[in-house]
Amino acid sequence: MELHSIIVNATVITVDESNRIIMDGAVAFKNGVITYVGATPEELELYDEVIDGRHRYVLPGLINTHGHVGMSLLRGYADDLPLQTWLKEKIWPWEARFTDEHVRWGTGLSLIEMIRTGTTTFVDMYDHNEAIAGIVAPSGMRAALCCGMIGSGDPGVQDRKLADAVSFAKDWHRQANGRISVMLAPHAPYTCTPHFISQIIDKAAQLQLPVHTHMSETNWEVELNVQQYGCRPVAHLHKLGMFERSALVAHAVHLTEEEIDLLAECNVRVSHNVVSNLKLASGVAPVPQMLARGISVSLGTDSSVSNNNLNLFEELKLAAIVHKGTTYDPLAVPAETALRMATRNGADGVFQSDSIGSIEIGKQADLIMIDAGKANFQPAHNPVSHVVYAANGLDVTDTIVAGKFLMRKGELMTLDEERMIYEANRMVRQLMNEDRPAHSK
Ligand SMILES: CSC[C@H]1O[C@@H](n2cnc3c(O)ncnc32)[C@H](O)[C@@H]1O
Ligand SMILES: [Zn+2]
């Protein structure tokens, strides 16, 4: 039986139906689940542990709905390039050499960054998923992991990749006390044959798993899809049955009005990766239009090679401001909406909206605490404004998943930061000292 804990005298930002802010508020949790949200009670004897929340904002943990945690070893290695050159000339040649060990330590770096900046749940698409799950489980984070499947040639390779993804799903779906779930993920319409995508979708239906993919990220992709298949990526994936599954698509930058209608009709979730899309010069997704049609748009960082960090507070601010700039409408994405995208909509994106994404009784105790006493939060006019426009992620003091502290008062509780940094740098030295792949010489 775990402690019954309560955070008291905090500013609680619930992001529930009524978007309540409770001044001098409290949140209690036991066995990983929230048991109380409201004013700080006078009687605290009921609780085993009373946590001082003075000068703290308490929020639901942030949810990062698209990334590639194993890629952190390549941070800073490939900047200022468009997506296709970036992938083909820089990223894929190195990834081809990655072993489980490289991915394990790259993942370690990523998890530390996310925990330190208040992310409690993330969606990831990569290779070497056993190594990823093997470190996510003890880290205490919540994750939806996908084996990213690329298959445009040899059917034998496609069969092997799908078999590996299915075996990973069988081993890891709903594991680590339910913190790890699995989705099936064709990488993108331009890297998978239609037949392979159909096979993946059929398998997802059979195993009752959601699907995840990159979609309509660049103009190049849309034009290629039209040339190859006579339709744009949205129609292509729709015809292949992808949207009959629970589907989360990353990017959705290049969309027509009709495509937005179709995504809304099919209840497709969208992960908005604003920093990555800007850095790779892919464009700006039509987020206000998607939100207006009721699409659940959440936030993703993509990898720390196209971002170049995993600090979701940067996405939060940029998602709130970039669309004001492109539409000349200051209400295009209001602060409350951006916060909802980073929390409740994120919970939709990982298909767990009943259990995470807000601070409500019965939901998982996935919480973060922010030091509201810092200069950048003064004066205290509006906590939501401060979290969206003034926070920088490094103000997070505590990160809690399922009632367990992964970071407490700035100290990491589950991962050895020094070791992760050492091992990640050792991996990179080892990779770079071997012969470089032909493309990157
Ligand atoms: C096969 S595992 C996933 C695969 O995706 C690559 N990737 C990383 N960022 C992006 C992006 O923005 N668009 C498309 N593909 C991306 C990553 O390098 C892995 O190879
Ligand atoms: Zn991606």
UniProtKB/TrEMBL annotation:
Reactions it catalyzes: S-adenosyl-L-homocysteine + H2O + H(+) = S-inosyl-L-homocysteine + NH4(+); S-methyl-5'-thioadenosine + H2O + H(+) = S-methyl-5'-thioinosine + NH4(+)
CDD domains per record: ATZ_TRZ_like (cd01298)
EC number: 3.5.4.28, 3.5.4.31
Alphabetical list of Pfam families matching this protein: Amidohydro_1
Residue positions binding substrate: 95, 187, 217, 302
Signal peptide interval: none
Keyword 4Fe-4S set for record: no
Keyword Hydrolase: yes
Amidohydrolase-related domain sequence ranges: 57-405
HAMAP family: MTA_SAH_deamin (MF_01281)
Protein name per Swiss-Prot or TrEMBL: 5-methylthioadenosine/S-adenosylhomocysteine deaminase
Organism whose genome encodes this protein: Paenibacillus beijingensis
Lineage: Bacteria, Bacillati, Bacillota, Bacilli, Bacillales
